[in-house]
Design brief:
By secondary structure, the chain is of the alpha+beta class. It has 4 domains: 6-92; 108-160, SH3 type barrels, CATH 2.30.30.60; 166-277, Alpha-Beta Plaits (2-Layer Sandwich), CATH 3.30.70.100; 283-344. Helix content is 56%, strand content 15%. A 5-stranded antiparallel sheet has the order 4-3-2-1-5. A 3-stranded antiparallel sheet has the order 6-8-7.
Length: 349
Amino acid sequence: MPDVDLGDIFERFGPIVIMVAVVLAGTVAGRIWMNRRRESDQAHIHVREQLIIIGLALIGVIAIVLALPVPESERNALLGVIGLLVTAVVGLAATTHVGNGLAGIMIRSARRFRPGDFIKSGEHFGRVTDVGLFHTEIQTETRDLTVLPNLRLATEPLTVVRSSGTIASATVSLGYDVHHHDVSEALTAAVADVGLSDPVIQVRDLGDFAVTYWVTGLLNEPRRLLTARSDLRVAMLDRLHAAGIEIVSPSFMNQRQVQGDTMIPSDPVVPTTERGDLEALAFDKADLAESVEQLSDKVAEINERIAAVEAGDQTPEAAQRLESLSQSRDVINRVIEERKKSVEDDPRG
Protein backbone atom coordinates (compact mmCIF):
# COMPACT_ATOMS: atom_id res chain seq x y z
CA MET A 1 0.00 0.00 0.00
CA PRO A 2 1.58 3.28 -1.11
CA ASP A 3 2.28 5.95 1.48
CA VAL A 4 -0.13 8.90 1.59
CA ASP A 5 1.60 12.24 1.72
CA LEU A 6 -0.85 14.43 3.67
CA GLY A 7 1.34 17.47 3.19
CA ASP A 8 1.22 17.09 -0.59
CA ILE A 9 -2.55 16.63 -0.53
CA PHE A 10 -3.02 19.71 1.64
CA GLU A 11 -0.71 21.72 -0.60
CA ARG A 12 -2.71 20.77 -3.66
CA PHE A 13 -6.26 20.89 -2.33
CA GLY A 14 -5.96 22.93 0.87
CA PRO A 15 -6.44 26.37 -0.71
CA ILE A 16 -9.56 25.36 -2.62
CA VAL A 17 -11.07 23.67 0.45
CA ILE A 18 -10.44 26.77 2.52
CA MET A 19 -11.85 29.03 -0.21
CA VAL A 20 -15.00 26.92 -0.60
CA ALA A 21 -15.44 26.94 3.17
CA VAL A 22 -15.14 30.73 3.22
CA VAL A 23 -17.68 31.11 0.40
CA LEU A 24 -20.12 28.73 2.11
CA ALA A 25 -19.67 30.53 5.41
CA GLY A 26 -20.33 33.85 3.67
CA THR A 27 -23.46 32.43 2.04
CA VAL A 28 -24.77 31.11 5.35
CA ALA A 29 -23.97 34.41 7.09
CA GLY A 30 -25.76 36.32 4.32
CA ARG A 31 -28.80 34.07 4.62
CA ILE A 32 -28.92 34.53 8.40
CA TRP A 33 -28.53 38.28 7.97
CA MET A 34 -31.43 38.51 5.49
CA ASN A 35 -33.64 36.29 7.68
CA ARG A 36 -32.99 38.57 10.63
CA ARG A 37 -33.95 41.54 8.51
CA ARG A 38 -37.22 39.82 7.67
CA GLU A 39 -37.83 39.03 11.33
CA SER A 40 -37.21 42.66 12.22
CA ASP A 41 -39.67 43.81 9.52
CA GLN A 42 -36.93 45.06 7.19
CA ALA A 43 -37.33 42.49 4.46
CA HIS A 44 -36.83 44.97 1.69
CA ILE A 45 -33.24 44.84 0.46
CA HIS A 46 -32.14 48.29 -0.60
CA VAL A 47 -30.16 49.12 -3.69
CA ARG A 48 -26.81 49.28 -1.94
CA GLU A 49 -27.31 45.91 -0.29
CA GLN A 50 -28.33 44.28 -3.57
CA LEU A 51 -25.18 45.57 -5.21
CA ILE A 52 -23.08 44.24 -2.33
CA ILE A 53 -24.61 40.76 -2.67
CA ILE A 54 -24.01 40.68 -6.44
CA GLY A 55 -20.43 41.89 -6.00
CA LEU A 56 -19.66 39.37 -3.26
CA ALA A 57 -21.04 36.53 -5.37
CA LEU A 58 -18.80 37.50 -8.30
CA ILE A 59 -15.77 37.85 -6.03
CA GLY A 60 -16.47 34.42 -4.54
CA VAL A 61 -16.54 32.77 -7.96
CA ILE A 62 -13.29 34.43 -8.97
CA ALA A 63 -11.66 33.46 -5.65
CA ILE A 64 -12.60 29.80 -6.13
CA VAL A 65 -11.12 29.80 -9.63
CA LEU A 66 -7.89 31.33 -8.32
CA ALA A 67 -7.66 28.60 -5.66
CA LEU A 68 -8.15 25.68 -8.05
CA PRO A 69 -5.10 23.31 -8.21
CA VAL A 70 -4.70 23.70 -11.96
CA PRO A 71 -1.92 25.10 -14.13
CA GLU A 72 -1.79 28.84 -14.45
CA SER A 73 -2.70 28.72 -18.16
CA GLU A 74 -5.92 26.82 -17.41
CA ARG A 75 -6.72 29.19 -14.55
CA ASN A 76 -6.31 32.17 -16.85
CA ALA A 77 -8.54 30.47 -19.40
CA LEU A 78 -11.29 30.00 -16.77
CA LEU A 79 -11.00 33.64 -15.74
CA GLY A 80 -11.29 34.60 -19.39
CA VAL A 81 -14.43 32.51 -19.76
CA ILE A 82 -15.94 34.18 -16.67
CA GLY A 83 -15.09 37.58 -18.11
CA LEU A 84 -16.73 36.66 -21.40
CA LEU A 85 -19.84 35.41 -19.60
CA VAL A 86 -20.14 38.58 -17.56
CA THR A 87 -19.66 40.67 -20.69
CA ALA A 88 -22.28 38.62 -22.53
CA VAL A 89 -24.78 39.05 -19.70
CA VAL A 90 -24.22 42.79 -19.63
CA GLY A 91 -24.49 43.01 -23.41
CA LEU A 92 -27.59 40.82 -23.80
CA ALA A 93 -29.49 42.14 -20.79
CA ALA A 94 -28.53 45.81 -21.04
CA THR A 95 -32.08 46.75 -22.01
CA THR A 96 -33.70 44.61 -19.30
CA HIS A 97 -32.35 43.73 -15.86
CA VAL A 98 -28.93 45.35 -16.16
CA GLY A 99 -30.44 48.36 -17.92
CA ASN A 100 -33.08 48.73 -15.21
CA GLY A 101 -30.41 48.30 -12.54
CA LEU A 102 -28.20 51.02 -13.99
CA ALA A 103 -31.24 53.26 -14.38
CA GLY A 104 -32.19 52.59 -10.75
CA ILE A 105 -28.73 53.62 -9.59
CA MET A 106 -28.97 56.80 -11.64
CA ILE A 107 -32.43 57.62 -10.28
CA ARG A 108 -31.36 57.06 -6.69
CA SER A 109 -28.18 59.11 -7.08
CA ALA A 110 -29.93 61.97 -8.92
CA ARG A 111 -32.91 61.91 -6.52
CA ARG A 112 -35.29 63.05 -9.20
CA PHE A 113 -38.14 61.99 -6.93
CA ARG A 114 -38.64 60.30 -3.58
CA PRO A 115 -41.39 58.30 -1.82
CA GLY A 116 -44.55 60.37 -1.48
CA ASP A 117 -44.06 62.43 -4.66
CA PHE A 118 -46.65 62.50 -7.43
CA ILE A 119 -45.19 61.35 -10.76
CA LYS A 120 -46.65 60.77 -14.22
CA SER A 121 -45.07 58.50 -16.83
CA GLY A 122 -47.14 58.05 -19.98
CA GLU A 123 -50.64 57.08 -18.93
CA HIS A 124 -49.54 56.14 -15.40
CA PHE A 125 -50.07 58.66 -12.59
CA GLY A 126 -49.72 58.22 -8.85
CA ARG A 127 -47.60 58.70 -5.74
CA VAL A 128 -44.27 56.92 -5.29
CA THR A 129 -44.23 54.20 -2.62
CA ASP A 130 -40.85 52.58 -3.32
CA VAL A 131 -37.77 53.18 -5.48
CA GLY A 132 -35.98 49.86 -5.99
CA LEU A 133 -32.97 48.79 -7.99
CA PHE A 134 -34.94 47.50 -10.98
CA HIS A 135 -38.35 49.13 -10.67
CA THR A 136 -40.31 51.95 -9.05
CA GLU A 137 -43.69 51.35 -7.44
CA ILE A 138 -46.46 53.97 -7.47
CA GLN A 139 -49.92 54.01 -5.87
CA THR A 140 -52.67 55.24 -8.18
CA GLU A 141 -55.77 57.22 -7.30
CA THR A 142 -57.71 53.92 -7.20
CA ARG A 143 -55.37 52.70 -4.37
CA ASP A 144 -53.82 50.09 -6.67
CA LEU A 145 -50.07 49.60 -7.01
CA THR A 146 -48.34 49.97 -10.38
CA VAL A 147 -44.75 48.84 -11.01
CA LEU A 148 -42.76 50.87 -13.55
CA PRO A 149 -39.36 49.71 -14.90
CA ASN A 150 -36.60 52.12 -13.96
CA LEU A 151 -35.27 52.09 -17.52
CA ARG A 152 -38.54 53.61 -18.70
CA LEU A 153 -38.41 56.35 -16.07
CA ALA A 154 -34.82 57.16 -17.01
CA THR A 155 -35.29 57.27 -20.78
CA GLU A 156 -38.83 58.59 -21.29
CA PRO A 157 -40.34 61.95 -20.31
CA LEU A 158 -41.28 61.95 -16.63
CA THR A 159 -43.44 64.50 -14.83
CA VAL A 160 -42.74 65.07 -11.13
CA VAL A 161 -45.18 67.23 -9.18
CA ARG A 162 -43.22 69.81 -7.23
CA SER A 163 -43.54 69.54 -3.46
CA SER A 164 -43.55 73.35 -3.17
CA GLY A 165 -46.83 73.57 -5.09
CA THR A 166 -48.50 72.75 -8.39
CA ILE A 167 -51.20 74.06 -10.69
CA ALA A 168 -54.77 72.75 -10.38
CA SER A 169 -56.71 73.39 -13.57
CA ALA A 170 -59.98 72.69 -15.37
CA THR A 171 -61.62 73.62 -18.68
CA VAL A 172 -65.17 74.64 -19.51
CA SER A 173 -66.87 75.47 -22.82
CA LEU A 174 -69.48 78.26 -22.88
CA GLY A 175 -71.55 79.89 -25.58
CA TYR A 176 -70.66 83.02 -27.53
CA ASP A 177 -73.68 84.78 -26.06
CA VAL A 178 -71.93 85.06 -22.67
CA HIS A 179 -69.45 87.93 -22.32
CA HIS A 180 -65.95 86.79 -21.42
CA HIS A 181 -65.67 89.44 -18.68
CA ASP A 182 -68.62 87.87 -16.84
CA VAL A 183 -67.09 84.41 -17.28
CA SER A 184 -63.68 85.54 -15.98
CA GLU A 185 -65.25 87.13 -12.92
CA ALA A 186 -67.21 83.99 -12.03
CA LEU A 187 -64.28 81.63 -12.63
CA THR A 188 -61.87 83.81 -10.64
CA ALA A 189 -64.25 83.63 -7.70
CA ALA A 190 -64.43 79.84 -8.10
CA VAL A 191 -60.64 79.59 -7.83
CA ALA A 192 -60.69 81.62 -4.62
CA ASP A 193 -63.52 79.51 -3.17
CA VAL A 194 -61.37 76.36 -3.09
CA GLY A 195 -58.33 78.03 -1.54
CA LEU A 196 -56.17 78.27 -4.66
CA SER A 197 -53.96 81.30 -5.17
CA ASP A 198 -52.82 83.25 -8.25
CA PRO A 199 -55.90 82.56 -10.42
CA VAL A 200 -55.43 82.70 -14.18
CA ILE A 201 -58.31 82.53 -16.68
CA GLN A 202 -57.39 81.97 -20.32
CA VAL A 203 -59.38 81.58 -23.52
CA ARG A 204 -57.98 78.43 -25.07
CA ASP A 205 -60.13 77.90 -28.13
CA LEU A 206 -62.73 79.70 -30.23
CA GLY A 207 -64.74 76.77 -31.53
CA ASP A 208 -67.57 76.71 -34.04
CA PHE A 209 -70.19 76.68 -31.30
CA ALA A 210 -68.47 77.51 -28.00
CA VAL A 211 -65.56 79.28 -26.32
CA THR A 212 -63.20 77.09 -24.26
CA TYR A 213 -61.87 78.62 -21.03
CA TRP A 214 -58.92 77.27 -19.04
CA VAL A 215 -59.03 77.92 -15.29
CA THR A 216 -55.90 77.56 -13.13
CA GLY A 217 -54.80 78.25 -9.58
CA LEU A 218 -51.72 77.47 -7.48
CA LEU A 219 -52.15 74.61 -5.00
CA ASN A 220 -49.64 74.88 -2.15
CA GLU A 221 -50.38 71.37 -0.80
CA PRO A 222 -49.82 68.89 -3.65
CA ARG A 223 -51.10 65.96 -1.55
CA ARG A 224 -54.60 67.50 -2.00
CA LEU A 225 -54.29 67.48 -5.78
CA LEU A 226 -57.18 65.08 -6.51
CA THR A 227 -59.58 66.81 -4.13
CA ALA A 228 -58.53 70.26 -5.33
CA ARG A 229 -59.27 69.35 -8.96
CA SER A 230 -62.72 68.10 -8.04
CA ASP A 231 -63.45 71.06 -5.75
CA LEU A 232 -62.44 73.48 -8.50
CA ARG A 233 -64.97 72.00 -10.92
CA VAL A 234 -67.70 72.06 -8.28
CA ALA A 235 -66.94 75.70 -7.49
CA MET A 236 -67.01 76.53 -11.21
CA LEU A 237 -70.48 75.00 -11.47
CA ASP A 238 -71.74 76.95 -8.45
CA ARG A 239 -70.28 80.30 -9.52
CA LEU A 240 -71.40 80.06 -13.15
CA HIS A 241 -74.93 79.03 -12.18
CA ALA A 242 -75.07 81.78 -9.54
CA ALA A 243 -74.13 84.28 -12.26
CA GLY A 244 -76.89 82.97 -14.52
CA ILE A 245 -74.45 81.41 -17.00
CA GLU A 246 -75.55 78.12 -18.53
CA ILE A 247 -73.19 75.21 -19.12
CA VAL A 248 -74.62 73.07 -21.91
CA SER A 249 -73.17 71.10 -24.80
CA PRO A 250 -72.74 73.05 -28.04
CA SER A 251 -74.99 70.73 -30.05
CA PHE A 252 -77.74 70.92 -27.45
CA MET A 253 -77.38 74.67 -27.17
CA ASN A 254 -77.77 75.13 -30.91
CA GLN A 255 -80.58 72.61 -31.51
CA ARG A 256 -82.92 72.97 -28.55
CA GLN A 257 -86.23 74.77 -28.67
CA VAL A 258 -86.76 76.27 -25.22
CA GLN A 259 -88.98 79.20 -24.37
CA GLY A 260 -88.08 81.06 -21.22
CA ASP A 261 -86.54 78.21 -19.23
CA THR A 262 -82.84 77.99 -18.43
CA MET A 263 -80.64 74.97 -17.90
CA ILE A 264 -79.63 75.79 -14.32
CA PRO A 265 -80.50 73.51 -11.39
CA SER A 266 -82.48 74.77 -8.43
CA ASP A 267 -80.84 75.80 -5.17
CA PRO A 268 -78.56 72.99 -3.98
CA VAL A 269 -79.40 70.85 -0.98
CA VAL A 270 -76.56 71.03 1.53
CA PRO A 271 -75.43 67.46 2.32
CA THR A 272 -75.76 66.35 5.93
CA THR A 273 -72.79 63.97 5.84
CA GLU A 274 -69.15 64.83 5.33
CA ARG A 275 -67.45 63.47 2.27
CA GLY A 276 -64.49 61.14 2.60
CA ASP A 277 -60.85 62.04 2.21
CA LEU A 278 -59.91 60.58 -1.18
CA GLU A 279 -56.18 61.18 -0.77
CA ALA A 280 -56.05 59.43 2.61
CA LEU A 281 -57.92 56.44 1.18
CA ALA A 282 -56.11 56.18 -2.15
CA PHE A 283 -52.54 56.92 -1.07
CA ASP A 284 -52.23 55.19 2.30
CA LYS A 285 -49.06 53.29 1.37
CA ALA A 286 -47.55 56.36 -0.31
CA ASP A 287 -48.23 58.41 2.85
CA LEU A 288 -46.44 55.79 4.96
CA ALA A 289 -43.50 55.65 2.54
CA GLU A 290 -43.22 59.43 2.57
CA SER A 291 -43.35 59.57 6.37
CA VAL A 292 -40.63 56.90 6.64
CA GLU A 293 -38.44 58.89 4.24
CA GLN A 294 -38.96 62.08 6.23
CA LEU A 295 -38.24 60.34 9.54
CA SER A 296 -35.08 58.80 8.05
CA ASP A 297 -33.95 62.29 7.09
CA LYS A 298 -34.64 63.36 10.67
CA VAL A 299 -32.50 60.49 12.00
CA ALA A 300 -29.65 61.52 9.68
CA GLU A 301 -29.93 65.09 10.96
CA ILE A 302 -29.81 63.89 14.58
CA ASN A 303 -26.74 61.77 13.81
CA GLU A 304 -24.99 64.86 12.44
CA ARG A 305 -25.88 66.80 15.58
CA ILE A 306 -24.61 63.95 17.77
CA ALA A 307 -21.32 63.88 15.85
CA ALA A 308 -20.97 67.65 16.29
CA VAL A 309 -21.54 67.40 20.05
CA GLU A 310 -19.06 64.51 20.37
CA ALA A 311 -16.45 66.52 18.50
CA GLY A 312 -16.73 69.38 21.01
CA ASP A 313 -15.74 69.69 24.62
CA GLN A 314 -16.98 66.87 26.85
CA THR A 315 -18.93 68.83 29.47
CA PRO A 316 -21.89 67.72 31.62
CA GLU A 317 -24.18 69.78 29.41
CA ALA A 318 -22.80 68.03 26.34
CA ALA A 319 -23.41 64.62 27.91
CA GLN A 320 -27.01 65.55 28.67
CA ARG A 321 -27.42 66.81 25.12
CA LEU A 322 -26.05 63.54 23.74
CA GLU A 323 -28.41 61.51 25.89
CA SER A 324 -31.40 63.60 24.79
CA LEU A 325 -30.48 63.29 21.10
CA SER A 326 -29.92 59.54 21.43
CA GLN A 327 -33.32 59.08 23.06
CA SER A 328 -34.99 61.10 20.30
CA ARG A 329 -33.23 59.01 17.67
CA ASP A 330 -34.36 55.77 19.34
CA VAL A 331 -37.97 56.96 19.46
CA ILE A 332 -37.93 57.92 15.78
CA ASN A 333 -36.34 54.58 14.83
CA ARG A 334 -39.10 52.72 16.66
CA VAL A 335 -41.74 54.74 14.80
CA ILE A 336 -39.99 53.94 11.49
CA GLU A 337 -40.03 50.22 12.30
CA GLU A 338 -43.73 50.32 13.23
CA ARG A 339 -44.67 52.11 10.02
CA LYS A 340 -42.61 49.71 7.92
CA LYS A 341 -44.33 46.80 9.62
CA SER A 342 -47.79 48.23 8.88
CA VAL A 343 -46.91 48.21 5.17
CA GLU A 344 -45.21 44.82 5.09
CA ASP A 345 -47.96 43.01 7.04
CA ASP A 346 -49.87 42.76 3.76
CA PRO A 347 -47.92 40.27 1.59
CA ARG A 348 -49.37 41.84 -1.56
CA GLY A 349 -48.05 45.31 -0.63
